[in-house]
Amino acid sequence: MLSLASAALVFLPEQTAVACPAPCTTETPVVTDPDPKGDLSDKTAVDDIRTDTTSCSVYANGTGMGMYCNTFGAGDAKTLREKYGDQKFQQCRYSELPPTVEAPHNPNPDKGRFMLMTCLENIDFDTYNGGPNRTLSLSIVFVPFGTDTSDHHNGITNFLWNQIDRNKPMPVPLLVTRPNRTPLVGIPTFFTFQWLDPLSGTPMEETRNGGAYREVTAGDVIMRARATKVVINPQQEGIKSTTCLADSPYREGALPKNQPADACSIIFKRSSASARKYATKPIPANIKDAFYADVTVTWEVTFGEEGQPMRTLGDGFAMRMRQVLPVQEVQAPNQPPTVIY
Length: 341
What we know:
This protein is mainly β. It has helices at 80-84, 155-162, 275-278; strands at residues 14-16, 24-25, 30-32, 45-50, 54-60, 64-71, 89-90, 92-95, 112-121, 135-144, 167-169, 172-178, 188-196, 213-218, 221-233, 242-244, 264-267, 291-305, 311-325, 338-339. The strands form six sheets. Strands 14, 15, 16, 18, 19 and 20 form a six-stranded antiparallel sheet that branches. Strands 4-5-6-11 form a four-stranded antiparallel sheet, with no helix packed on it.
């Protein structure tokens, strides 16, 4: 049976250094939350499955899931270091920010721009697949002009990055507020969710698997993840959290009293102009006049041989992230909420 490689997706807003043991290269630091304690998504659960043709180790946590499999009669027992020698591994790759993600304020547009950086971290080069502590992180970083942001290709880089296809992050919920794109004080604000693929930033509704759902296959082994609930906590004194269905309903144009009984809503008692004063958790310095809400998604993960009964992995996994949520006293030109990765 294969040793397991764990993947974690990190949604974070400010910069710190990232360790990069040889053989790998990196030029831009990863970002981090100002108060990360208690914000990490659930730890990884693992299990094994064997079919007539495939032997797999499966894993899942609050931010991703995947599997590492051998087809019987195939495989390579060499470690990464033995197989690829002194080849340099490109740890981080860059891409433009997806249209659905708003860039932070750039005080130096003549010196660089913000990009999405995806990094493979904690690689153990003395294993054949990267080791049990491998993580995947996403971050928005400032990239100075002249930085090499191209994808590099060699044996070890291609091998590790290509495995992402069987090691996928969970979809990320972007809060959509109704009836106003920017919530107003004193009236019910209803929430629905647009589920995004964090690697591409594209809505999951445009993909084969649909919204709050993720599927991974390898041979005749299949894994499925389904979001069961979403908790929104504004992290403000006197404003309670709310628990919602992952496919929370909303009746367009209906009065609050005529909305479905299981609609997701919060009544905000005050605007976000005083967010920092009443915050129950630190708010990053670059977040202005907005609540910095905790959003927690619970995922149910199952796996098994295709066409056979599925088994449950773990007992549910919590994905935790934070999202900017401005609230106004009166109607004003609307700005959509922004997810901070």
